[in-house]
Amino acid sequence: MAAPTKRSSRPTPVRKAWRSLTWLGVIIVGLFAINAAGVIWGGGSWTPKLALDLEGGTQIILEPKVESGQSVSQEQLDQAVSIIRQRVDASGVAEAEINTEGDNVVVRIPGELDDQTRARIESSAKLELRAVLLADAATNESIDPSASPEPTDDAAAELESTPTAEPTDGSDPAWITPALQDAFDKFNCSSLDEAETNVAPAGEPLVTCDVNRTAKYLLGPVEASGENIVDATNGMVTTQTGASTGQWAVNIVFDDKGTKDFAEVSTRLFGLQGQTPRDQFAFVLDGAVLTAPQMNGAITDGRPQITGSFTQESSKSLADQLKFGALPISFTVQSSDTISATLGTAQLQSGLIAGLIGLILVVVYTLFQYRALGSVTIASLVIAALITYLMITILSWREGYRLSLAGIAGLIVAIGFTADSFIVYFERVRDELRDGRPLVGAVEAGWKRAFRTVLASKGVNLLAAIVLFVLAVGSVKGFAYTLGLTTIIDVVVVILFTHPMLQLLAQTRFFSSGNPWSGLDPNALGAVYRGRAEFRKPITVPASKVASSSKEAAKRQTIAERKATAGVGSGTSEGKES
Q: Which end of the chain is flanked by fewer CB atoms within 10 Å, N or C?
């Protein structure tokens, strides 16, 4: 009795196909679920956001603000444009236009501008670190300049104790002259915006208020600058045990110079503990005190932390501003207006029509060239379009991506690139059929050869898209972005849909029988078979018949040679007899 044969543990092509299609279904359902969650709970939409050229948006004109007698250079303006562009991109706003017009910087942002993005643009993020000399509650009432209020006992004592020598450091009370004390007493926090504190000289004391207008300060000269910041991030403040306090903060990393400067200052202020407010150090952002904490230790690693009344959004906004650098000059908002789309609906419709025409041409070509097999191309394009649309809407919701006319051009170009992958695969399968393989084997062998070609081709496309995205600016980035996205989706569709569909179709009678309308007709492909019924079995000759035929041929060859030899001998003898 024969032993039972063991079934192979290797999955069949049909099982592999259904497994791949299941994973594709999971991906599509997952993208739908993410988008639906965004629509229901996260302020998302089922349609992608449009860029400035298709929707319009907000235009902000920034006018440089410099000290009297100074002028702004083109180098400073170009640097400001670069920094503002980095800030805008960090906020997730794509397809923004930022350039110079005369001495002004013009920022055009698509869609409605939120407060955090506006703060990123309008703030110069000029960070200065100054020692606190005096602090008091804010004065918001108008004071008669002619009045000379009597100083308080503490202030009078401070004035009397002020030496006439030159100050030795930023915390030296010698900075507090009678004139400066008088200016501090009379300073009105409600007029902070008009005081031009953001253009105050760095080497002189500064009278200013905090950002909430609740306290006013007399600060020493700048002892550390935001120019020495190499990184800034936001995060939750934690205790020594690692527990979160629930308070948001901005974490700063200085370069070598900033680390050295801050170490000297923090060491000095730590030695002034108990002499409040001279043991405080103010973080001054654009001329207003962001926070003025007491120095509780010498910070020598160049990693101070700014705390205050931050939210997650405001701390991230400040961190981005500091991370990408302070603007070389201060700006004031000259105007902020709503602008209309530069191209409008007509151009959008033209782009969509162009894409539709291209899609129709691809469909016509595949049906003409591959007949019923072309339906796989059409279905693959539909799947790729569905995944691309869902990805764009999700990126529009989560990352602020906006679809521009250049981005639409990238999607149109992707139609041809996507169809190219299917053509490479189909032609490989047909080559295998010409070599006499059965259809099931041709599908698998053709896939192995085609997949390497597809990966090489898509790798080049993706690399080009990445380089273009990194080096380009403006709307060209939108073209590169959509091109790279569709390239990745193309590979996913070929692996999880196109190949599995051919694996399943190879099992059907219509395709396996070589129907002329299948696109896999053996006669049309030039394959040689004994008959249509044996389409899946190429002509073969059994080895026994080959051996038998060889023996018979050898035997006939021997008999023929003997006859020829005998004929030659008799002829010779007859010649001799005659």
A: N
